[in-house]
Amino acid sequence: MKVLLSANEAVARGGWEAGVEVASAYPGTPSTEILESFARYPDVYAEWATNEKVAMDVAIGAAYAGRRALTCMKHVGLNVAADAFFYASMTGLEAGLVFVSADDPQMHSSQNEQDNRHYAKFARVPCLEPSDSQEAKELVGVALEISEQFDTPVLLRLTTRLCHTDTLVELGERVTKPPTVEKYPRNPAKYVMVPGNARKKHPIIEERIRQLAEFAETFPHNRIEWGQRDLGIVTCGVAYQYAKEVFPEASVLRLGMTYPLPRQMVRDFAAQVERLVVLEELDPFLEEEIRLMGVEVYSGPEPYEGGKSIFPACGELDPGVVRQAAITAGLLPPSAAAPVPQLEKRELPARPPVLCPGCPHRSVFVELRRSKLPIQGDIGCYTLGLLPPLSSIHTCGCMGAGIGVAHGADVAGDEERHVAVIGDSTFFHTGMPALLNVVYNRGKSITVIMDNRITAMTGHQDNPSTGKTLQGQETVKIDFEPLVRALGVEEVHVVDAYDVKAVRDAFKACRQHDGPSVLITRRECALLPEVRRTWLPLRIDPEKCVACWTCIRTGCPALRKSEEIFEKTGRQKAEIDPLLCTGCELCAQLCPNGAILFRDQMGE
Amino acid sequence: MNNVNFLLCGVGGQGTILASDVLTQVGVQAGYDAKKAEVHGMAQRGGSVTSHVRWAEKVYSPLIAKGEVDVLVAFEKLEALRHIEFLRPGGTVVVNDHEIIPITVTSGGAEYPDDEHIRAVLAEVTGDVRWVDGMTIAEELGNVRAANVVLLGALSSLLDVPESIWLEVIEKRVPARYVELNRSAFRRGREAIVSG
Lengths: 604, 196
Ligand SMILES: Cc1ncc(C[n+]2csc(CCOP(=O)(O)OP(=O)(O)O)c2C)c(N)n1
What we know:
The complex is a heterodimer. By secondary structure, chain A is α/β, with parallel strands linked by helices. Chain A folds into four domains: 2-218, 3-Layer(aba) Sandwich (Rossmann fold), CATH 3.40.50.970; 223-334, Rossmann fold (3-Layer(aba) Sandwich); 362-532, Rossmann fold (3-Layer(aba) Sandwich); 552-601. Helix content of chain A is 34%, strand content 17%. In chain A, the strands form five sheets. A seven-stranded mixed beta sheet of chain A has the order 3-2-4-5-7-6-12. The longest helix of chain A is centred in the middle third of the chain and has 23 residues, at 195-217. The model of chain A has no long low-confidence stretch (mean pLDDT 97). Chain B contains eight helices and six strands; from the N terminus they run E-H-E-E-E-H-E-H-H-E-H-H-H-H. Chain B is globular. The interface between A and B is large, with 53 and 56 residues. Strand 8 of chain A pairs antiparallel with strand 2 of chain B. Thiamine diphosphate binds next to helix 4 and helix 17 of chain A.
């Protein structure tokens, strides 16, 4: 039977069919649906780990114990897990182990567009890349086989376009094997990477990658599709689809394994075509490998000056981008491009992502904006506090960075009081060691933990503060107050994020305290199903509204300017969109004229 | 069988994802190879959302280049204008006659384009623009959230696929208690175009 699946769903299916028993991951777009989907299959164990490094260690442990295992992450997650990635390459394993990296060309939802194929080469780990969902499913099983045959973890690299595209997939049955070991291995020479053992291991992994390069020569997912011989295209991943679309006549060498390369196959292909070009997304990874082999790669009319030829290194490819670049390089005639009309179009208003109506983060940003202090951000929905009219995030680098950056500015002697804001999931991910560092080193930055009781940004995943596991089991519900007290923070305030005055007073107390402090603002994400049931749109009394726009300056999408004019100033009064308002009462508390009705006044 | 490239665009929360899921599955059941690519940024709600859906004997690229969309389905007027460059000149636009004001207009200085401008720009690309009053129809049926299926109904009347396939796919895709609502929404949308 063929069904439509995204590559994420296909990887989950492929893992299940190939007998993966343990999967651990930390959510991150575009990879999140892999584990959400895997967790729904029978007879598997799946968990949300606290971060990618932990998740990878868990998968490695399962593979040491002889069970096929998988972890998946967004591309930057592999930076967090890099230490584990490298030791797993050194030790090898007892049963198949696949690491899925979902890269994000175009940065649809990320801070960079790093190309994780470099990690494969860096750690001498083979890298597989599918071109659609069917192949994504197959390559999970193939990766597990390779992993077991060569005693290596395997990197399966996806990109956003594959992750979020549905294509047809043929479903199969699940095949399981008993654990490959009877007893957990006691094999220090293989598994204890002290220098003495590691030195013996290094030549082994170099030899392993040489053998894998030989294996790649006959690997069925590396294949040549012969067409005309004037143009030969080496390609991989979703770029293969663009190659077929834009150059239907050309010969194509499509690589399902992009590290290590089948060197002979590449040479033979190059020898039989007039011009060889490389079509890949992001970095010139294949191109540089091929050039290093001494094979000539066509780079367009200009002489090659290093870097990437013909196709852009920045951003996502699509048939339009590929065609345009090919025209510029003289591979296609100018007439190949579809005519794009030049329209007399005005500049259109953008639709940036915004904090939702009722978002509990909003009150905190209203307060932080008043303070005018430097605010170190972090990654989550609350990063959107950066946008006007809240405009109160001043740095944001990667998950867990804010607390350390605030402390750094503080110990550097910067006069202003530094504040870090961080979400619940991010605090568990990498915030905890950073806060401990502030306390240990006698810092005095303020840490605001915005506890909305869910990992919201990536689509509501459970975490240690929610009391539920990925597979729906009840579990502990970590409370932040005792946790941060145990980390040594003495000045701790816990408030309801919907209570403006409480947020204000607690923040003031933190500023007055001469030492590290933590403000925990607590309130469930307004989009959680149980919260949705309590939504109650509020109303503005137009008689009382003086058009001061205090409410509008909270940036709540439910507030807008009405047609009605306030005579004295000639400004538009405010009104509330009943389809959007959740009734959080933030604006009602802020209104200086009592013009916004509270929930219990709505009956009047 | 004709190859068809669709671009669906709207605002997060409008049900464009359900609509594009249905459209892709209908393509499969009508015997095509079909692919659906979703393009959306970080927004849970409130941002622009687009889906590329392609029906062909064999589909390669999941994304459609500018100027190569046959049918643009816009769930919101500003989004129709934003994405009109994707349409092949002379292609078809199905547009929901509905405005969702972006935050950059409410609390920033930006301006929502007037109807005259929208119509004029769309007309520069094609004479085949079908306006559908999806919200009013859905409201009449008692649930504004069914507007996406009204639009699907309208779209279906322009395509050569039996109605039964559409209804079968929709019924499988929506929760049981909304099947009747969606069936009516689909039919009303189908008539909306036939009659106007
Ligand atoms: C290393 C890394 N892993 C995962 C992500 C994806 N990601 C972005 S925000 C976020 C979690 C945010 O949750 P939380 O801190 O609770 O804040 P909320 O969105 O709920 O406000 C995740 C997992 C990332 N950006 N970087």
